[in-house]
Amino acid sequence: MNLSFYTMAFISGAIATVVFLIVRVKKGGMPGLYTKSIASFCFIATALAAANHNSTFIGFASLIILGLVMGMLGDIWLDLKWIYTENKDIYLYSGFISFLIGHLFYISAIYFYAPWTRYSILAAVVGAVVLALAAALMEKPMKMDYGSFRAILFIYSLVLSFTVTSSVATAVITGGEKVWVVMSIGSVLFILSDLVLSGIYFGKDKNTPANIVINHSLYYIAQFFMASTIFFIK
Length: 234
Hints:
It is a single chain. By secondary structure, the protein is mostly helical. Helices cover 83% and strands 0% of the residues. It contains eight helices and no strands. The protein has helices at residues 2-26, 29-53, 58-83, 88-113, 118-137, 150-173, 178-202, 209-232.
C-alpha cells in the first residue's frame, strides 16, 4: 500500500509538471507561478510518500525533504522575478540562496548517511572546485554576462557541484548502491538544468520556449530523483 502512495505521488508530479510547462510557455505570469508551485509541491509529496514507505531512515528523509522545500521556495522566487520586474534582482538573489541552502541539506544527507573516506572527500572537493571554475570560465565563451551576480553564482556553482561530486564519489565507493546512483543522476540533471537556466538569465536571446521546456524538464526530473532517494536508501 505504501508503494502505491509513492507511485501515485510520482505520477501526479509528472502530470503536474507537464501542465505547468504548457501553462508556462503559453501564458506565464501568475498562472505559470500557480501551476509551478503545484508541480513543486508534488516532488515534496513524493518524498513524503517515500518517507512513509521507508520510515527507518527518517533523518535522511528529513534532510532531503528540507532540501526540496528550499527548492520549492527557490522556484517561487525565480518566477516572481518575471512578474515583479522592478524587484527582479532581489527575487533572483533569493532564488539562488534558497537553492544553495537546499543543496547544503542534500550534501548533509550524503555525509551523515553514507560511507566516505578522506580520499572520496578530497576527490569530491577537487571535482567541485574544477566544475565551479569551469562554470565561471564559460561566461565569455557562452556569450553570457553574469554582472553583479558573479560572486553568488560562483558560490552556488561550488555548492551544487559539491552535491554532484559527493554523490558520484559515494556511488563509486559503495559499489553502485541504488540510492547514491539515483542521487548522482538527480544532481547531474540539476546541474544541466542550471546550465540552460544560466543562458536564459544571462545570455542573449536564449529565453525561448524550447529552452524553458528543457530547463524545467531537467530540473523537475532532478528533484523527483532526489525525492526518490528516500525510497531507495537501505
